Give the backbone structure.
Amino acid sequence: MNIIWHKKSRQYHLYNDKISYIMGISPVGELGGIYFGKRIHDKEEFSYADYRFALPNVTVDPDTESYSRELNRQEYPSFGTGDFGAAAFEVEQSNGSRISSFTYKSHSIFKGKTPLNGLPATYAGEDEAMTLEVTLEDDVAKMTLVLSYTIFDKYPVVARHAVFRNNGTETVKLTRALSMCLDLPDRDYRWMQFSGAWARERIPQEKELSAGSVMIESKRGVSSANQNPFVIIKRPGTDDFSGDAFGFSFVYSGNFLAQAECDTFGRTRILMGINPERFGWPLEKGEEFETPEVVMAVTGSGLNDLSQTYHSLYNNNLVRGKWKNRPRPVLINNWEATFMDFTEERILSIAEKAKEAGVELFVLDDGWFGERNDDYAGLGDWIENPDKLPQGMKGLARKMNAMGLKFGFWIEPEMVNPDSNLFRRHPDWALQTPGRKASLGRHQLVLDYSREEVVDYVFDMLKKVISDAPISYIKWDMNRSLTEVYSAELPPQKQGMVYHKYVLGVYRLYEKLRAEFPEILFESCSSGGNRFDAGMLYYAPQAWCSDNTDAIDRIKIQYGTSYGYPISSIGAHVSAVPNQQTGRNVSITTRANVAYFGAFGYELDLNHITDEEFEEVKRQIEFMKENRELFQFGRFYRLRSPFEADQAAWIVVSEDGKRAILALYCMRSNVNMLPGFLKLAGLKEDALYTLKGEEYYGDELMNLGVPVGRLAADGFAIGRDFVSYVEVLEAK
Ligand code: GLA
């Protein structure tokens, strides 16, 4: 890994063993793009990559009379000076002008990576990464722009963000401040996004790029289940096993924009950052604005490889604290068993049975506080309800501990019900626009986290409950989108700050709680997977993946989630049947066979299953405990897509390749079909593996494949929906 500054050509080459990122100072002094891809040899200059001639109908720089911003690749373009593509940023100046040109002043290259201010980001030690910060200035707007690039030693990854500073005396306003732009020289790509809704999150969708833009965004205040802030650009024909692709992952949890724009010359511009819609950030004299980070990754060997890069990078350089790379406890959550209708006695009876089965952690979900007996009241009043918890959280937690269980509980700290003491005392603490009614979502309003006092107040309330009891885990929920966004505290010209300040407030509360309670395992949640993003993983190493706990639907949801996020981060539970969301009846075996590939747990009352099923649950938990390191942190390969066939398969492989766990699911049986072969991946070619008592070579399993008929003796082909097989492969 190195970052070279070629002084004569004024070009930078960031590289490691796998990739090169090359750019340089353009003839007009701005930063121009040259190359991002597989590692290439270093050279003094790559200036031939610039176009120094004008075409008809392009505008050129008046000093050089030949350099056109439209024809040359830009690193962080503005609009209005000859580049007619989508801009990375825009600054409104005090005279009304939105024209700017930031030109090179200096740079610094250093080992490691500096943290972002109040924002989640990947981190790295001095031997893990190198960073280049290029400082550019606009003398007219009197502003500085620092573009930051970190290259990681072990990963084919470059992390980027930008910082603006107002050095003048007049206030300026950022109306657009994306985190990155990447100009690619052609448009022979397919765009892949992960879209959905509540209960059907992160479903992969593809389209071909052609002239014009493809764009996804969130305007909900959260990253959203509708569009995930992770996209892939891949060559036609690239699949999970081979081909070129780029990944773009936004380390942020609020409104975002991701765009691919193809210009008239057949080139592609990729942009990602905070959604400019409703964004406006005034910078007064001396103030700075820092954009969140985008993590760009490259592969030449298919999408499994790209996903594994994100899995390892996020497990090693994004997740922090005690739970980093640590197998997660097997938990039981009472939500689908009781909803809000419970007594301490009922909770303890669920816990006792769970303990007998081998569960390690009990999670008390919604309904333990205030007047919270349904979802019309109580949010905001984080004080135990004595009818449900007669000796408070402390009493219950101690009883759990005495039983040998760790204990944690649910909160939804960003919300308030109009029917709550908090709202009655502080009606102006909810986001709402003066003179207008505030829309409700699940009968609740959103607290104005752009205000420090609101965040501090909630922190104090939560701190009291948490520090009073032995708490090991917190599930932090967020159950509605933001509407009528307006903060009573900010003047009119600062209302464009509220969406982002809200997210910063959420991050601040997380950081305060983490600092106060470093041992606690946080799980983020947002009506299931409505805020499943890399930003959240910096604070909460796992996220409830979806409120849809139906195993068959979960295959698709977890499969889609695996493209951008590690298996350790995917909260996955075995729940009761018929399933609450789909009414489907799936065996307890298949329910666990899907949930194993995640942060595993149960979400039902184990007193209500058959003795036979209970014995199986005991075996499942034992199996999970033996293998959770491999399930959660092994190298994960998607093998067969549930979106292309009635079967799905995936495998996790240990670091040394000697142990693997294969899963094969039949979502829908096909009559009168041959079972066929399933090709495995990630194994050692020469090793001899035992699978269901038979021996196979690694190369045999990866090229000829496993005869599915041997895994599924009674045959996927002959009429049984929802069966599944999880098998351990062990090399000699
Ligand atoms: C959301 C979560 C669920 C559960 C409920 C409680 O829907 O996604 O898991 O916690 O809230 O109200």
Notes: The chain has three domains: 2-317, 331-413+448-478+510-632, 640-731. The pocket of alpha-D-galactopyranose is lined by residues 335, 365-366, 410, 477, 479, 525, 527-528, 544, 547 (CB under 6 Å). The longest strand covers residues 172-184.
